[in-house]
Each structure stands twice: as structure tokens, then as C-alpha cells.
Design the sequence.
């Protein structure tokens, strides 16, 4: 959509890598290791244009939000910072919100749900501290932004979305981006289902991230979390959740111990409700 116009805009900014073509959107696939410059805006911009074929307009917006995310300590380690800088959020918002893609706020993505704001995505991702090779389950695929972000931390991501047309639309977004050269998104497996029950066949998981709010921790998710695993989940009454870090450990006596801590020290953060599927129809929520 904007790739052609950005070529003209960027031509004066940097010289394009040899072999760069308007049709081969990502000049070379990501190798899973390389990292954009984390400390210099111009170097980042040049890197983004040359290696990712991205639009300098969005790269600038991404950098500006990145500096705010880092200042706020939402992303604290370099791998998480890299993931933020590599994830093209502009591909996961509605066209009418393109100019707002990197705003602090969550944004409407249709179907009555939202793409979470960039700060909370970074903070929740930081909390689960995804290591290379970790198996990560996301509940609430939504726009696909969080799943894409996770793809820069591990190549084993599973994501579940309850709204069928949204799950299909986001799968199509991933597939289109894979076709354009974002081959890292091949690491994201997705399905349309009620995420209350997790994804048993793919589990157990090292990390679980839940992006919709519920008044309790779903037992199937706790069960599919490995011993030593970490989950982050918004828990509380409708519209007034607290974001919890949940760990599952084996004590010296062999007993499984579950701990909970509030990642925002008690701050209330409203999330889209964790809804419930009855047959093929979404009916109410899983709240008790
Ligand atoms: C805040 S939104 C999306 C955030 C998303 N991670 C992103 O990056 O855009 C939460 C999502 O959870 C989904 N959801 C709600 N209840 C669900 C359930 N039981 N199973 C799976 N997804 C659910 C909603 O449909 C919505 O798309």
C-alpha cells in the first residue's frame, strides 16, 4: 500500500541496497540473530530501510515510541528492545488508524475489540522473559501484533482467537507478510477457538500471555504451563483488571506452587473481556 510511495520518499535519505526492488518487500529475510541499532535513530532508520524495506515514516514513528517505551522501563533487555524495533505495528492496525499506529493508546481493530497499546505489549512481554526456543502460547490473537512481536523472541508461538473472522483476517495478514519476506512469522501458529482451554496438543508451554481480562486464572492454562513457566494475565472484574505475573514451580517437597504478583503494583488496567464460545456462538464470558 505505501511501499511504492516510500521508495521515492526514502531515495534521498539513504541509498538503497543493491538488488533492492519495490516488489521484493523485505530485501533479505531476517536470520533470527541480527539486530537493528538500538541507540541511534538515524542508524535505525537506515537499517530499517536497507534490510527490511520499510517505510521511513513508520520507522520514525516506531523509533519515537521505542524511546518512550524504554524510558518507561517497559522494555528493559536488549532482546525485548530488538523485538519492539523490529515489529512493524503499522501492518496490524486498520488503514484508517495508520497515522496513529504508534500512539500510546489501544486502537479499534473492528469486531468490538482492540489492539493493545505498545507500552503494555512491551511490559507484558518483558515479564514473561521469552528465551530463544521457548514455546509461547498467546490467548487473544486480535490484530496479530503481539504474536508478531513474540516471533522476534522465539520461533515457537501459538495463538488462539475466539472471533472467527478476526482469526481468519489476522492469519491472512501473517501469510501476506510471510509472502513479502517476513519469514519470521512462519513461527506463529494460529487457530480460531475458545482460548480458555488453551492449546493442549501443542503444550506444555514455557510462557503464556493472555490479552483479554477474566476474573480468575483458567485452570487449563495453568495446567498447560510447564513447571518453571511464567504466565501473564489480566485478572479482575469486568473492565478493571490487574495484570498478574503467575509462576508455577515445584517446591522442595515436590508440591507444585503457584505464585502471583501484580506487574503494575496495583494499577487497574481495563482489558477486552475473555469471552466464551458455546457451540459456534460467542456467549457471555468465562467470569464466575
Ligand atoms: C486486547 S484484544 C487483542 C490483543 C492482541 N494480542 C493484539 O496484539 O492485537 C484481546 C483479544 O482477545 C480475544 N478473546 C477474548 N476472549 C477470548 C477467548 N476466550 N479465546 C480467545 N481469544 C479471546 C478478543 O476477541 C480479542 O481479539
Sequence:
Amino acid at each position: 500500500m505505501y511501499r511504492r510511495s516510500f521508495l521515492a520518499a526514502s531515495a534521498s535519505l539513504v541509498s538503497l541496497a543493491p538488488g533492492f526492488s519495490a516488489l521484493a518487500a523485505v530485501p533479505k529475510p531476517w536470520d533470527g540473530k541480527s539486530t537493528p541499532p538500538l541507540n541511534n535513530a538515524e542508524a535505525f532508520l537506515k537499517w530499517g530501510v536497507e534490510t527490511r524495506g520499510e517505510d521511513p515514516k513508520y520507522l520514525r514513528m516506531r523509533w519515537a515510541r521505542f524511546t518512550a517505551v524504554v524510558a518507561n522501563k517497559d522494555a528493559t533487555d536488549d532482546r525485548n528492545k530488538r523485538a519492539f524495533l523490529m515489529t512493524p505495528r503499522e501492518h496490524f492496525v486498520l488503514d484508517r488508524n495508520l497515522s496513529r499506529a504508534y500512539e500510546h493508546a489501544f486502537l479499534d481493530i473492528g469486531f468490538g475489540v482492540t489492539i493493545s497499546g505498545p507500552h503494555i505489549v512491551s511490559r507484558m512481554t518483558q515479564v514473561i522473559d521469552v528465551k530463544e526456543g521457548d514455546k509461547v502460547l498467546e490467548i487473544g490473537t486480535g490484530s496479530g501484533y503481539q504474536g508478531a512481536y513474540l516471533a522476534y523472541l522465539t520461533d515457537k508461538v501459538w495463538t488462539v482467537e475466539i472471533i472467527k473472522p478476526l482469526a481468519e483476517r489476522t492469519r491472512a495478514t501473517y501469510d501476506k507478510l510471510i509472502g513479502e519476506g517476513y519469514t519470521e512469522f512462519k513461527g506463529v501458529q494460529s487457530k480460531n477457538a475458545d482460548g480458555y482451554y488453551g492449546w493442549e496438543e501443542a503444550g506444555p508451554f514455557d510462557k503464556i500471555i493472555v490479552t483479554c481480562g477474566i476474573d480468575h486464572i483458567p485452570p487449563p492454562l495453568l495446567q498447560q504451563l510447564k513447571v518453571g513457566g511464567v504466565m501473564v494475565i489480566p485478572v479482575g472484574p469486568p473492565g478493571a483488571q490487574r495484570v498478574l505475573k503467575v509462576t508455577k514451580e515445584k517446591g522442595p517437597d515436590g508440591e507444585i506452587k503457584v505464585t502471583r504478583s501484580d506487574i503494575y503494583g496495583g494499577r487497574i488496567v481495563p482489558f477486552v473481556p475473555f469471552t466464551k464460545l458455546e457451540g459456534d456462538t460467542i456467549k457471555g464470558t468465562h467470569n464466575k
